[in-house]
Every structure is written in C-alpha cells, then in structure tokens.
TrEMBL record:
Coiled coil segments of this chain: none
Region Disordered, annotated ranges: 164-188
Record's protein name: Acyl dehydratase
InterPro entries according to UniProt: HotDog_dom_sf, MC_hydratase, MCH/BMMD
Domain of life: Archaea
Length: 188
C-alpha cells in the first residue's frame, strides 16, 4: 500500500516529541536521556584534530601506553560535548541560548569503546528578568559509562522558550518551515 492508496480521511497528523518548554520543568525532576553512545577511536582522533588538541595522550598510542592509564584517553572536551548533546532532547530542544556551563568535573577517564549514558536533574528554574518569552533553567548533567561509573558532571543553564510563545503543533514542529511536508491543510 502506498500513500496514494490511503484516503486522507484515514490519515491523521500526530504530534511528535517537541521538547520541554519552560513550564514543563520542575525542580527535582530527573530525565534519563535516551540512547547510550559508544565512543569510538575515530570520534576521539577526529575531535582531537579538529580542536587542535596537541596532547599526545589522545592520539599517540606508544606515549599513552607508558602512562598510568596504559592507553589513550578520550578527549575530555569531546565527553562534555557528547553528554550535552545527549541531553538536548530533554533539556534544551527549545532553548534560545545556553548561558553557562559551570562546575565541570571529570570523575573518571573515558576510553575508546566505552558507552556513555547521561541524565539531567533540574536544580533551579526562574523567570528571565530581561526577556518575557523565556525562562532560565539550571540542570546538573551526570554522565556514566557502561559500568555505572560516574565520568562527568556539570551544571548547565539554558534560556528556554515558554510554550505560549512557541505555539508548537503537529503541523508546525520546531524547525519546519511553513508549507513543507504533509499538508492538505495538515489533514484538519
């Protein structure tokens, strides 16, 4: 059966996940972000090269073998970027800006082949003093490896849109320009 075979009255547009808006956050809530991510050697080498990180601990196997770790470490700024990226779906899909990353701590090394998982806890939320259309949310982001070892923590503070301003809908999710996709008037 193809799309052409389905009568429009049998189709309906269903709203997908739109991310959280300012009103959706509650202090004390914890979001276990979906999808763990295995860190590969390619991730580490490319990120190290892209950022011009010249520490041989990340790209020189012979050097790293002689250290206390016995192998190369994954670049810590890659771990930060990956963990923050994992949290976007729950924390900042509707952010207009990230105001800060604070109290960043690496608790354990990350190696090629480790699979990372992240969760965020809402620490604080408040209205913006300067912008009526957003609120400010502070979360603690915690990242674990496959052995449940805490490898990273940080506090993250984005400005998040209020729902009334964003006016999300199934026909107009964030990032879709008007007139693209589905239509005949988005199946009413």
């Amino acid at each position: 059966m193809t799309t052409e075979d389905v009568d429009d009255r049998d189709r309906r547009l269903v709203e997908g996940w739109q991310g959280r808006f300012f009103e959706d956050f509650t202090v004390g809530d914890v979001y276990k972000h979906p999808y763990g991510r295995t860190v590969t050697e390619t991730d580490n080498v490319w990120f190290t090269n892209l950022t011009m990180n010249a520490n041989p601990m990340h790209f020189n196997e012979a050097y790293a073998a002689e250290t206390e770790f016995g192998e190369r470490l994954v670049d810590g700024t890659f771990v930060i970027a990956l963990a923050v990226g994992m949290s976007v779906v729950d924390v900042s899909a509707n952010a207009t800006a990230n105001l800060g990353y604070d109290d960043i701590r690496h608790h354990a090394p990350v190696f090629h082949g480790d699979t990372l998982f992240a969760e965020s806890e809402v620490l604080d939320k408040r209205e913006s003093d300067s912008r009526d259309h957003v609120g400010i949310v502070t979360t603690e982001l915690r990242t674990y490896n496959q052995d449940d070892e805490l490898v990273l923590t940080l506090e993250r503070t984005p400005m998040v849109l209020k729902r009334e301003v964003a006016e999300p809908s199934a026909a107009a999710p964030t990032g879709w320009p008007e007139g693209v996709g589905t239509q005949p008037e988005d199946l009413s």
